[in-house]
Amino acid sequence: MKQLLDKLTSRGSASLDDTELLTLLLGEGGEQAAARRLAERLLEYYDGALARLGRDPLPRLRMVEGMGQRRAARIAAAAELGRRILQAQAAETTTLVTSDDVIRLFRPELEQLDHEECWAVYLSSSNRIIERQRISQGGVQGTVVDHRLIVKRALELLATQLILVHNHPSGSAEASEPDRMLTARIAQAAALFDIRLLDHIIVARAGSFSFRSAGLL
Fold it and tell me: Where are the transmembrane segments (predicted)?
């Protein structure tokens, strides 16, 4: 392990490739060779997809030969710590300029959910975030959103713009017909009070979908 630790200390953690990082997490004592073989098996099991590795629960991680409870727990803890760091960084965001900004803000929070949630982000005319609020929570197939409550809150906050965000637990980010109908209702209701719906973004494991980028807003 000393060689990897020296590399991390002198060149930083970014200098380590995926196998080396996992080797450090999985290693015990000075058994670098055994830990590296296990790291390679783990990456092979997940076809090199770190995102899948980070999503899987402890029992699935333990299915990899040689993992055991302690090593699997170490990987799960590292993945959760990474998610929490991303959430903390996203929470520091004060302005939104592009759809990518919105996706970076919400992906750490919504991507892993096994149920659907819908959020509204209320903005000033200069794109400063006034408030972000979860407006509904449902099941795997969908959630009920009341467009009147969304507009009511925008008026209370004196927001001039808003963005709608929800997730698709199924993994596909493609907008459904109910998604399109909801977007149209909210845009029309908000426009009555000179409030602009800037975008409706769908976050999923397979990607994301922006109504604005798709020319639907």
Answer: none
Mean pLDDT of the chain: 87
| Dist CA 207 CA 9 (whole Å) | 35
* 3-state SS class at 213: coil
Q: Which residues, listed in sequence order, are joined to residue 134 by a DSSP beta bridge? A: 119
What torsion do the CA atoms of 204, 82, 47, 208 make, to the nearest 10 degrees? 20
Q: How would you label 158-185 residue by residue, b for 16+ Cβ within 10 Å and e otherwise?
A: ebbbbbbbbbbbeeebebeeebeebbbb
What pLDDT, on the 0 to 100 scale, is given for residue 153? 95
Place of tokens 């900004």: 101
Domain annotation for the chain: domains and CATH numbers: 2-88 (no CATH), 94-210 (3.40.140.10)
**The pair of three-digit structure tokens given for residue 164, joined into one six-digit string:** 């709608």
Residue pointed to by tokens 């509904």: 136
Average pLDDT rounded to a whole number, residues 3-29:
84
Higher pLDDT, 196 or 109: 196
Q: How far apart are CA 210 and CA 217, in angstroms?
A: 9
Close Cβ partners of 52 (under 8 Å, ≥ 6 residues apart) = 46
Does the reported pTM lie above 0.70?
Answer: no
CA 121/CA 130 separation, integer angstroms: 8
Take residue 75 and report the two structure tokens written for it.
């990987």
